[in-house]
Amino acid sequence: MFSSDGRQSGDLSLSLGDSQPFSGKYVLIAEHHPRIAKYTRRILEKYFGCCVTVVGNGFEVMANLDTSSFDVFIYAMGLPGTASFKLLREARSACPDMGIIVTGENTSRFPYVEAVRFGATDFIAKPFLPTEIISKLVRIFNELELSKARHLEAVKYQSLFDLSIDGMALLDGGAAVIQDVNKSLLELMAEKKMNIVGKPVAMLLDAEERYRFEQWLSLCALIGRGAISDLKLAHTVNTKVYVDISMTVVKNEAQFGIFLVMKNVTERREMQVRLDEITQRDLLTGLLNRRSFVNRVHGTVRSAQEYNIPTTLMMIDVDGLKGFNDKQGHAVGDQMLVEVATAISVHIHPSTGEACFRFDGDEFALLLTGVDEMESFQVAKRIQKEFYSRNTRGLTISVGLAEYRNNQSVDEFISSAERAVHEAKLLGNSNISAVRIP
Predict the structure, then answer these.
(1) What element of type H or E holds 75?
(2) Cβ atoms 387, 339 nearer than 8 A
(3) Which of 2, 82, 255, 423 has its CA 20 to 30 A from that of 194?
(4) How far apart are the C-alpha atoms of 314 and 377, rounded to whole Å?
(5) Contact status, residue 21 vs residue 69, Cβ threshold 8 Å
(6) pLDDT at 2 over 50
(7) Could you give the percent of the chain with pLDDT greater than 70?
(8) CA distance 243 to 245
(9) Are the CB atoms for 201 and 247 separated by under 8 Å?
(10) What's the CATH number for 26-155?
């Protein structure tokens, strides 16, 4: 070290090993005393392998800081060329992440506190031993490495956030208010960032979805993660945009928040709806199939039981289709089935809950909600009339009617309609029959 009169004392036998973990760091030494500057430089180069620049006045300090980047600035207070605190402030402004060590005489008048207030990271009193400055530099270099690692991590996750094809949002941990969103979410919502940030996240969803979402979010916030599917967005243009949402709680010393990922599943959902529609439809006639009938009739019976709604099941059978196919061919027979389906469709009203089905090969079924047996008889007559107005090639249809009675099971209800159409066929072609149950 140096004594108060500038003489070097001590030795440089202390070693950090051969690896020099901080080699390549850039250090600027501002020292007007040549021997102290040389002594400090030797420590940095020997123990750290640093790239050292030495200057002797404030003008050179700023010239170097304006043109180069430094990891550490070792500054002797009272350097000629500028006021000490002003130079500290300018140095900190030029290199915000740089470590700054101020050096000065070990007196009670040395303004250590003010130096830190103006930008210094640490201070050291002259004369100093090699171990003193080495320990301070090790701490500063370690903090710089940690800060750099954190910055790289933040940049990496910010890139993942910004470039993700899925919509992403960061919420505060309390009120679930949106703090940040990525570009993909803005595109998904067709919104501007200023219209979303600062708003409750539930506002992104259709009003009918918000209660379900809020209950899910509250539960998942306790668990720490979770997922929910098929939520409809409150989209400004497209009213049929659906997302799957996953969430993770982000919790550390600095913050407590909620991270959401929104995956657009609109196309997948539409495809599933189309596939479901295909499985529920008869490919030839386009009517609902027997599978759909079984699902629907249970719900219709429940409504009839609970609300005492008149409900009638109509069965329609094509008379003599087998013999017709043998003579005319199955292609013509299929066309006749399509004609029957069309005649039925003309006289039903889906908005009132009515539905028609291809029940079996040459049998059709109609569920008529709010229609009693007498009204259904008129519907049957209109369907026959519609069918016969077409080129039916002599084919006729028979109709059986069964009005639902309380305490009937679903199977009993269906059996009564099948019995009615069987009785109609026994009466002769093109008849209408109703089964009356006391």
Answers:
(1) strand 72-76
(2) yes
(3) 255
(4) 9
(5) no
(6) no
(7) 89
(8) 6
(9) no
(10) 3.40.50.2300
Per the DSSP assignment, residues forming a β-bridge with 102 are 75, 123
Query: pLDDT for 340-395, tens place per residue?
Result: 999 999 888 776 668 899 998 899 999 998 888 889 999 999 999 999 999 899 99
* Distance of alpha carbon 367 from alpha carbon 359, whole angstroms: 12
Helices (H), 28-177: 34-47, 58-67, 84-94, 112-117, 130-163
Cis peptide before 310 (omega within 30 of 0): no
Q: How many CA atoms lie within 13 A of 177 on its CB side?
A: 7
What the block records as the tokens of 111 is 């303004």
Please state, rounded to an integer, the average pLDDT across all residues of the chain. Answer: 85
Q: How many CA atoms lie less than 13 Å away from 186 in the CB half-sphere?
A: 14
Type of residue at 351: S
Q: Read off the DSSP letter of residue 320.
A: T
| Contacting residues for 332 by C-beta, under 8 A, at least 6 apart | 324, 325, 393
> Distance (Å, rounded) from C-alpha 322 to C-alpha 328?
10
The runs of H, that is alpha helices, within 166-287 are: 183-189, 210-223, 266-280
The reported pLDDT for the residue numbered 404 is: 92
DSSP structure string for 194-225: GGTTTSBGGGGB-GGGHHHHHHHHHHHHHHSE
Q: Parallel, antiparallel, or unpaired: how do β-strands 26-30 and 72-76 relate?
A: parallel
Domain boundaries, the chain: 26-155, 165-268, 281-434
What's the CATH code, domain 165-268? 3.30.450.20
How many residues belong to the chain? 438
Between CA 398 and CA 419 the distance in angstroms is 12
User: Region 193-222: what's the mean pLDDT?
Assistant: 90
Burial 94-132 (b: 16+ CB within 10 A, else e): bbeebbbbbbbeeeeebeeeebeebbbbbbbebbbbbee
The CATH number of the structural domain formed by 281-434 is 3.30.70.270
Q: Under a CB-based contact definition with an 8 Å cutoff, are residues 164 and 246 in contact?
A: no
Q: What region does 198 belong to: left with phi over 0, alpha with psi -120 to 50, or beta?
A: left
* pLDDT tens figures, 101-150: 988 876 656 677 788 888 888 888 888 888 888 888 888 888 888 877 77
Residue in the block written with tokens 């996953």:
246
